[in-house]
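Quick one - inputs below.
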Amino acid sequence: MVLGMIKEHGLLIVISGPSGSGKTSITKILRETEANLNFSISATTRPPRPDELDGVDYYFFSEVEFQHKIEAGEFAEWAVYGSHHYGTLKKTLNDTLQSGKDILLEIEVQGAIQLRKLYPDGIFIFIIPPSQASLEARLRNRRTESEDDIRRRLLIAKSEISYINNYDYIVFNYDNQIEKAVENVRCIIAAVRCRVNRYILRQIQKEFNL
Amino acid sequence: MVLGMIKEHGLLIVISGPSGSGKTSITKILRETEANLNFSISATTRPPRPDELDGVDYYFFSEVEFQHKIEAGEFAEWAVYGSHHYGTLKKTLNDTLQSGKDILLEIEVQGAIQLRKLYPDGIFIFIIPPSQASLEARLRNRRTESEDDIRRRLLIAKSEISYINNYDYIVFNYDNQIEKAVENVRCIIAAVRCRVNRYILRQIQKEFNL
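Output:
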């Protein structure tokens, strides 16, 4: 039985990359098409939007609750964006991984660097635009921000790209070819599941009476 | 330009596994469908069949020529099957790899073990039947051999499976689901091409003015 040959602990797959890389769009497509992947739910202090459900879209916490959890070391990573806290609870990840299921997490670069320390065996995928020109065009098209804001976001994106060597895989997200990037991420997950260290070799040997 | 960001040296991809694993059928499908993969051509002392061309299907050598090349250390691996020599010339692999192209090699387990020593960075994929029962059924269906021959082939296949921990990836080839195995091999190749160590990070940083 092949199932018994696979290690019981699931895989942590982290999709990250600078603002403008397309990581959120890629994750959205995977969420809609990959039945055998679990997706991490983030915690936030931002108030829920009308269509958002607690425990489905986010875990919604008050500032006080969030602070308590930070102090209790319950977060695998957390950060402040705008005026709100965002983070990933260790429990969210560990419960899924320990049940033998793989979990995918889409996250900013700073969060990924924090996660790498806690989960050195995780699979860290960096999504990157094909060029500086493409990155700039995407940041410009995205929002109606001032030139100063765009410059600032470009600088942040560039500083994020400098962390690329902390990742295991690089996926270029070419303009108007997102399906190609999605396919590469899909392949990385499929390939990692075939790695020899994912298998209990003793079980395979047993099946073949070795 | 993304092309300049990829390392100049190609990847060696080795598909191997016991007799009955389906490695030859899988490689045949890849050969027909993967345009951007090169396939290694073996050398042999077996005489060409009527439809076989020298330098296309095999490099055909006389016994004397083959022996000379063994002594000159020109083979990356070689072995005797039946009454003929088979092998892979180092030049075949290195010329392709140095031109920046990836090369796929389908090979018996003993040859793969020899190759691993010369090409530690190669990608070694082990194709395996899902069970002992399946392996046995495939060896039985395959040829009209005596029960003794089948027993012998089964023992060889099992001893080959004991080398599984020399490989990087394991691909189960389920009965009547060869396309699934092909897809996994395809994904492994796509994923390896996305590995961070395949990229010249300095070139990426240069593109983004870092």
